[in-house]
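Appendix B, example 12.
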Amino acid sequence: MSTVAFHTLGCKVNHYETEAIWQLFKDDGYDRVEFETNADVYVINTCTVTNTGDKKSRQVIRRAIRRNPDAVICVTGCYAQTSSAEIMDIPGVDIVVGTQDRHKMLPYIEEFKSARQPINGVTNIMKNRTYEELDVPYFTDRTRASLKIQEGCNNFCTFCIIPWARGLMRSRNPKEVVKQASQLVSAGYQEIVLTGIHTGGYGEDLKNYNLAQLLRDLEEIDGLKRIRISSIEASQLTDEVIDVIDQSEKVVRHLHIPLQSGSDTVLKRMRRKYTMAHFSERLQKLHAIMPGLAVTSDVIVGFPGETEEEFMETYHFIESHKFSELHVFPYSMRTGTPAARMTDQIDEEVKNERVHKLISLSDQLAKEYASKFEGEVLEVIPEEKGSVDGQLVGYTDNYLKVQFEGSESLIGELVKVKITEAGYPMNHGQFVKVMPKHQTVAIAGK
């Protein structure tokens, strides 16, 4: 039996797609093995969101080639889409497929085995207008299932290479989304994370259907306990979406809303579609309907021309709006984007200093946020064994990471845990009880 090994770099969408590609191999009779072992085929799913993504992708490709020079080396993902020639130039790479036509990978492998000629299967993503269906009935390593609902992005922020790697906005057919969600719940998942390249834009290209309607339809799935939106822009948090979240029993108290900068002048140069006033107003509305809501965010520091004043605007905005955690990135120049051609690039030292300032603010805010829940009983889905024997680790609905004592049989269950010691990045808790899988229907007139 032939063996295949996978290595995934980058975001949740890539992890989802690796699982989908594995299904294709599995149906073809392949066995999946660890990446550090000797495999017949290596599939490297690459990332290009920053320079580091490119660099890491190249390192992993070379690692696979060294591990087994006779193996078939397939490279896919965003870096493959934007820089296929660069990857084909690495001696030992056999097949390159971008962010579409993944089902062609297996025929390419057969073709390569007979002809022994490297294959570049990357085509123009900008011409693609249809969503590529990739089915994932279950995940190899997770208790939270990702569900990809859309592909591509039409925003063209000046710093971002992703539309060139993923193409324009394409939403998945709502029936397929609901069907796969039900399938995942049947496979035992109680939490589903909706993912995409521009997740909150779901439905913008559909007639009479949008994200709010999708959330309503997912709400109806029996046995699904939690719906988490992996990321949503402030401009996509419409009154209708906020209203649906308010009515929902399943959408969790955690939203990831990318900020990128807390300064209107920087946002303009980034070509982001909101002002700080609008962002602030949306946050206030959300906090009003969801007490205890965790808002996490992404921030880019050192964008071309960012002055000390503009940086401090960002700092103060984050501080006063009490985000619960930040992902902070120094601005990374991507060739071909408008921001890369801007002349007032910021010195690396200044960038690093600003990154550290925001990271320490994030740590402080994360600790403050967690401390509000000390002594409270929260619902956790344990995902894995903890660092200490007999301990489990999982996330609460509001995205606090908790470690507590419990048996391995609880992994994937929904359990109540009392937070005994709040902290960051880890909280400690005490197991209270397991929640029943299906809600019992109340008898009328009880």
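The mean pLDDT is 95. Residues 175 and 242 are 23 Å apart (CA to CA).
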